[in-house]
Specification:
Distance between the termini: 52 Å
Number of helices: 8
Strand content: 5-15%
Structural class: alpha+beta
Helix content: 40-55%
Low-confidence stretches: 1-7, 64-69, 72-80, 98-110
Strand order of the largest sheet: 3-4-5-6
Mean pLDDT: 81
Length: 242
Amino acid sequence: MATTDTATPATPCLAATCHRSLRDNEQTNGHTICIPCVHLMARWLQSELPRQLIVLEGSRHRETTGASSGGRTAYRTAPLPGRDDVLNLLGPASWSDAVRDPYGQAHADQHGPVPIAGVLIPWARTIADQRRWNPPATLTPMSLATWLGRPRALDYASRQSWAGDFRDELAELMRTVRAVTRLRPQRRPVTQPCPRCEDLALVETDHQLYVDCTSCESMFTRDELALAARITVAALDTGATR
């Protein structure tokens, strides 16, 4: 009697903003989101967000226009105390009563963008409570990003049922921050064929660990691309000496 093999359906990464499926090693290790998502979250928290915060801090005050005379500036209107969008993002949030909880429930009294601290505190509080770790020393956005960006915090989060929500909220936060600062990661072509499909379609993006192939959607670290280049050169040298 003939038997029909049934392929095991791929388990999708729980992040709604990710289209990948979990690999066997990721499922074996208990991940609920894919490793590329974990690395991307690390880049946001460890690298890009701290740089964006520097720009936000320098953008607190509104730009003013007016004629200058005798060392004084004559304003058409009285200068406002600060940019509302920046002040909202840099605003404080409470550890015990954050603006948003890990399950997306926002408080009714929040207007405008949720403060960066308001997005990060619930996740730091959830991890600290579940793991019984000491919380961040301060509740500033920089301190929270540093605490959440630690490898052990992200490693724990990546195995939880709420990991996809965490990744999606961080992605939305970064979009909001970039819309205010106008600073977005730059994408650049890589002048090397894709090791998998051999198309010249590799692209690297600021703050990201992986280089993407826009043809076959494979992802490679820079070390993997360097190894692939050495193998290609060695193969060409071997062919030339024959």
